[in-house]
Structure formats: structure tokens, C-alpha cells
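If you are new to this repository, start here. Below is one unmodified record pulled from the training split, so you can see the exact layout before writing a loader.
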Amino acid sequence: MKQIPFEETIELLARYQIPVVPSAVFNNKKEAQDFFSQMKQPAAMKIDAADIWHRTEIKGVFLDIECLTDFNQAWRQLKQIEGIRGVIIQEMRSGLELVLGVKRDIQFGPVVMFGLGGLLVEIMKDVSLRIVPIDLAEAKQMISEVKGYRLLTGFRGQPVVDQKKLAEIIVNLGCLATENPEIEEIDLNPVMATSRQIDVVDAKIWITSDEE
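And here is the target side for that same chain:
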């Protein structure tokens, strides 16, 4: 498998109405500075590189960038990482962290996944799965199956997540995988959810390599 560039990833997600936080990828520092100066701050800066599963493990993520001094420091350190394809600059988001994904099973085809995001998905494995295609009713059922479901309903001050909108995104993700058979795996983590919006913050898509 090979991981497609971030710019191609967000373009593909947009075609299937899967919302991504405003983002852009740069190799030219001046263009990146201009984008940063005009965007809503604070910003996040991340590495776009092939064959990287977790950007944080290679110190490829800088958060809360609010001034050009922070920008320059982050740019310099990211550019030193081996295999870099570009620097991702995007608006920061807060909210409840969710995770969405797809993995292509040899026997059943694409399987879509939903769960709590961030470190919670790695520690708790609190996810639900469905073979695609699925409809809105199935997607809503997936959402309600996770153990942390109450977190989506305003529990302990968490935002009340728009479950209809979330279900639509899950259905669209399944359609994306079904209609693009070269896709082997999709990882959307985290997806930030509030009472007002749901946005993919980090996204990776792997496709079948030409060498396979």
C-alpha cells in the first residue's frame, strides 16, 4: 500500500461531502506565511509524508501556532524530517474527538468503523463496524453501539453532537470506499465534533501500490 498526499486526500473527501477543517499544503515558505497570516488563528502545522501512521511519533505536529516566531520554528523543524512532501497548515479545532475509518477485507470488501477518537480508540477499542454499503439507519445504529455513546449526548458537559450529520458522514465514507476500489484503508482521526459542526482534522488514505 502507499499513502496518497494530504492534498489529494482532502479533495477526495470533499467530493463525498465529508467535511475537513480548512487546510492547505505548502512547500514554499512565503506562500505558507501568507496563508497563515490570513487564516483564523491559532493554527496547526503538520508534516505530510508517505508511510507515516502517526505524525506525533516523529514530532511532525505543532499546535497553537499564533505568531510568525512560532510559525518559523515549526516550519524549520518540520522541513528537517526525512521524507517530507509538504507542510500542512490548518485551523485548530476543539470538541469531542471521534474516529472514522475504512479497511478493505479480502472476503467482505470495505468495512467502515466508528468510535471515540484520539488515544481513546487505541486504549479502549470502543468502536463499531459495518460491511458497506450502509444506510442512514445502520449508521445511526453504529453510533449508538459504542460504549462511550453518552459522550455524544451532552454527558458531563460534552457537546451534543449532531448524530444525523455524523450518520450522513459515515454513509458517505462507505460510498467513497465502495466507489474507489483502489482504496485499501482510510483513517480519519481525530474528527472533532461540537454542537455546531463536525470536521475531520487529520486524514490518511492508503491505496493499492502499483508494485503489488
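Two things worth knowing about this chain: The two ends are 8 Å apart (CA to CA). The domain at 96-207 is CATH 3.30.470.20 (D-amino Acid Aminotransferase; Chain A, domain 1).
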